[in-house]
Design brief:
The structure is a single chain. The chain is mostly helical. Helices cover 76% and strands 0% of the residues. The protein contains 5 helices and no strands. Helix 2 packs across helix 3. The mean pLDDT is 78.
Length: 134
């Protein structure tokens, strides 16, 4: 029969077990966090939701990147429009500005979608994307 442990030995054994349990719990938490934050896994399970999220993120990013119109700029544009002899010139310039602003938003959305598409593509363990040629 085993000898009963002294109080110091018992406390040391309990401390070792507590350290082991804490280490295991931290490892489990790390692996759970990694798997829940893996965009590729989300993209495989919910491709439509991830694509929609990328689109929304792109539009939000473009609204942050594209500066708002300033009042001083609007006053300058009004003066230029008054000086314009042709009624078509201000209209054309305004259409150009609108197209430019929308293109910036679309480009940022496409870039965000491409990043998520890249995250969705299979990647080998060595970090290279497999090709169809072999």
């Amino acid at each position: 029969m085993a000898e009963p442990l002294s109080e110091a030995e018992y406390l040391e054994q309990q401390a070792r077990q507590a350290r082991r349990a804490l280490s295991c719990a931290l490892q489990d938490a790390k692996s759970a966090l990694k798997s829940s934050a893996d965009v590729r896994l989300w993209a495989q399970q919910y491709p439509l939701a991830v694509t929609a999220s990328a689109l929304v993120a792109g539009f939000l990013a473009s609204s942050v990147v594209v500066p708002p119109r300033r009042r001083a700029g609007q006053a300058r544009r009004r003066r230029r429009m008054r000086r314009a002899r042709s009624w078509a010139t201000p209209l054309i310039n305004q259409v150009k500005r609108l197209i430019r602003a929308h293109l910036q938003r679309v480009i940022l959305s496409v870039v965000a979608g491409a990043v998520l598409n890249r995250a969705h593509s299979p990647i080998a363990e060595d970090g290279h994307v497999p090709t169809e040629q072999g």
